[in-house]
Amino acid sequence: MATGRTHRPATRSRGIPEATVARLPLYLRALTALSERSVPTVSSEELATAAGVNSAKLRKDFSYLGSYGTRGVGYDVEYLVYQISRELGLTQDWPVVIVGIGNLGAALANYGGFASRGFRVAALIDADPAMAGKPVAGLPVRHTDELESIITDNDVSIGVIATPAGAAQQVCDRLVAAGVTSILNFAPTVLSVPEGVDVRKVDLSIELQILAFHEQRKAGEETTSAQEPAAAVQPRSGAAVRTPAAGRAAGKGPDGDVPAVMPA
Amino acid sequence: MATGRTHRPATRSRGIPEATVARLPLYLRALTALSERSVPTVSSEELATAAGVNSAKLRKDFSYLGSYGTRGVGYDVEYLVYQISRELGLTQDWPVVIVGIGNLGAALANYGGFASRGFRVAALIDADPAMAGKPVAGLPVRHTDELESIITDNDVSIGVIATPAGAAQQVCDRLVAAGVTSILNFAPTVLSVPEGVDVRKVDLSIELQILAFHEQRKAGEETTSAQEPAAAVQPRSGAAVRTPAAGRAAGKGPDGDVPAVMPA
DNA sequence: CCATCTTTGTGCACGCGTTCACAAAGGCAT
DNA sequence: ATGCCTTTGTGAACGCGTGCACAAAGATGG
């Protein structure tokens, strides 16, 4: 899962809770699938299962949008698809720029999900002059110098950052200065943006680390029953114990092959 | 941000709240950066700023791990790096397999962040026979037939799914059957897994849709001040007002251009 | 050794999000 | 029309997460 949401401390935008907004795309996807199978109506129970949530939660979520169901019957699939699409702002066209056309940026550009619902890749931008002009996913890569004019000319308000961590903040600043007010950040950095700009981040290594935590916990539960009491965490094996001071030397140690790029 | 977290209704694993676990990688990254600049100690205030959170929250988060700070001074950077790494299970090696070596899968394989901290790409797996043997990011792509043996032989417990949506559940089932207990899913589908298996999902289009929602709201606030009162959302252009029952026929109405491809 | 200053660790209160459980509402059969 | 059955919409309770604000703890200087 992308983690995310910076700024806007869970603002209940126009009555719709942030948590609900985050689930609407999920419902929409499930509904679209039903629509393709020409299913006319669906109950909260069925839809909830398809979306992987609790039916009570789903009904409450929908209640924030209005009363779109029919008691005793369920929800009209097509109607709901439209309502949610409209609520999410997907009935209009959103031009998007992707900055940083490396492996990830190229993958994003090729990703079908982009174009599918209201999003249109307006331009691919990269700082490498050698990339300029080369076609990626059918679009010619533009040089960073053109960033501002591209944003302005295409009226872009959503930007995707797929650059190395080091360049992210700078790119972000330029995007914002040029008029972008929503940013999806794939670079492993905390971006600071002015009030009114939304940032969401997708961070692979954070997700993996969270999984590792749970994985470790599972493994620990099998072997050791109740490892350490309370203040537990502190002590450790004798010799190899890296004291705060000693630790520093690492970084090129155990995993000396770590590409210096992209911290983690 | 990757969204996510399936199953495990916010279990407070060993006393550490899920929300805190999700922030530990953030702190770790900030601390690693400080460590590289040889900064010996850091205050909760400074570190919080670097990680983009509130200092009180940070202190509370750390309090779940133990009392690792020194009042009047702050936290020892190296020591904290080690403690958090250990808590997240990053002091051990986690072999990972990536299934689905398309654009995204290849990008992930090349992503440095993988190897950097305890994670090692054990194998790249793809269903396309033509891909088999071809080197990607220095590793030969293996065919799906080998999936089970690869998992078993390398003792893999974390799997990354980067296949098309249609194949995701099937791949997931096989991974789980072979012994994987943590899955990072990039495919736009809800995966169902047995108890005890953790799934986190990273979904580009969901993130974009959430941004679009806020973007639309911003745009709406500028022009219209207080659009509609409360029960608001419902009404719309006269004739086209679709009642729940009438709705069915719609879907091709006002916005008849909605592409039926790739749900969202 | 004492006073002062800094920064941690946490008790407490508040608000969001989730879930339960049920009354209201509509369809359908008789 | 009437009654039964299904499913929605929501009031209310609960629990997690956040942030305030302060007491405790340690460092530092005289």
TrEMBL record, chains A, B:
Ranges where the record places region Disordered: 219-264
CoA-binding domain span: 89-190
UniProt entry keywords in alphabetical sequence: Cytoplasm, DNA-binding, NAD, Repressor, Transcription, Transcription regulation
DNA-binding interval(s): 26-65
Gene Ontology biological process: negative regulation of DNA-templated transcription; response to redox state
Coiled coil residues, start to end: none
Molecular functions (GO terms): DNA binding; DNA-binding transcription factor activity
GO CC list: cytoplasm
Residues engaged in binding NAD(+): 100-105
Subcellular location: Cytoplasm
Principal cellular location given in the protein's record: cytoplasm
Residue stretches of biased makeup (Low complexity): 238-251
Quaternary structure (record): Homodimer.
Main function: Modulates transcription in response to changes in cellular NADH/NAD(+) redox state.
Family of the protein in this entry: Belongs to the transcriptional regulatory Rex family.
Annotated protein name in UniProt: Redox-sensing transcriptional repressor Rex
Organism, scientific name: Streptosporangium nondiastaticum
Gene name tied to this protein: rex
